[in-house]
Amino acid sequence: MRDVLTIAMPKGRIFDDAVDLLRQAGFRLPPEFDDSRKLIIDVPEESFRFILAKPMDVPTYVEHGVADLGIAGKDVLLEEERDVYELLDLKISACYLAVAGLPDAKINELAPKVATKYPHVAAAYFREQGEQVEIIKLNGSIELAPLIGLADRIVDIVSTGRTLKENGLIEYERMVEITSRLIVNPVSFRLKDTRINELVERLSEIKSYALQE
Ligand code: PRP
């Protein structure tokens, strides 16, 4: 009998790209993937169990081994720094992290405030720049912060750039390019290597992925 692989999938913007990718690789995923509120979807024909998680939580499930594999944005991996291996850059859901704010903002020079969903990434970035800032952690709608005077700047994901534009914000600095990655629990990788390598090969056949170091 084949090992069942448990895969943590990020709900939200990456989800459809990830499902498309698995289908392109020839895995038959049922229609439940297109419209369902289920949080666990078993696909016995493919010996897969999918966990539908909040994107920021995917590395946590994988680190704890309740999921063998996961699909997570590089932004989340940089922020969470979990004990997981990156197997593949899936090259889906491309976007980037940027520092942004109001075009004519007078930055508070003593202690500029930076609002973000990525407090660790933002703190490390400004530390490297030799700039002292106060980080304000928010959970979403980050672009609100400079508009209502909560922060001088934001650190956030830019994809199409629409959210910045429609809220009258501009990008100050482009920080890091982001794509989604296939991650694995180190123990699962040892115990279920045959199946995991088969999945990696199937995915590699549809795009030319470079294996991660
Ligand atoms: C993300 C991000 C930006 C927006 C960028 O938010 O935080 O707000 O998308 O995309 P765009 O450049 O295509 O406009 P998301 O929609 O994930 O929701 P959130 O505000 O809850 O984080």
Automatic annotation (TrEMBL):
Domain ATP phosphoribosyltransferase catalytic: 54-204
PROSITE patterns in UniProt: ATP_P_PHORIBOSYLTR
Amino-acid biosynthesis keyword on record: yes
SUPFAM superfamilies linked to this entry: Periplasmic binding protein-like II
Recorded superkingdom: Bacteria
Localization of this protein: Cytoplasm
Molecular functions per Gene Ontology: ATP phosphoribosyltransferase activity
Recorded family membership: Belongs to the ATP phosphoribosyltransferase family. Short subfamily.
Protein name (database record): ATP phosphoribosyltransferase
Gene it is expressed from: hisG
